[in-house]
Amino acid sequence: MKNLHFLLFAFVLFTLSSCSVITGIFKAGAITGIIAVIVVIAVIIWIISLFRGKS
Q: Is the whole-model pTM more than 0.70?
């Protein structure tokens, strides 16, 4: 089983270039950050609308 993990790691290491891996990580991070900011802004607007609706 250890050899299978090592072979899989070696296969991934040789087939993917480091630049494409890093690019993918940063793209995923940027998209996740944008979605998180949108969700936080939506929650803040929702909370503000709850307080304004009760007045």
A: no
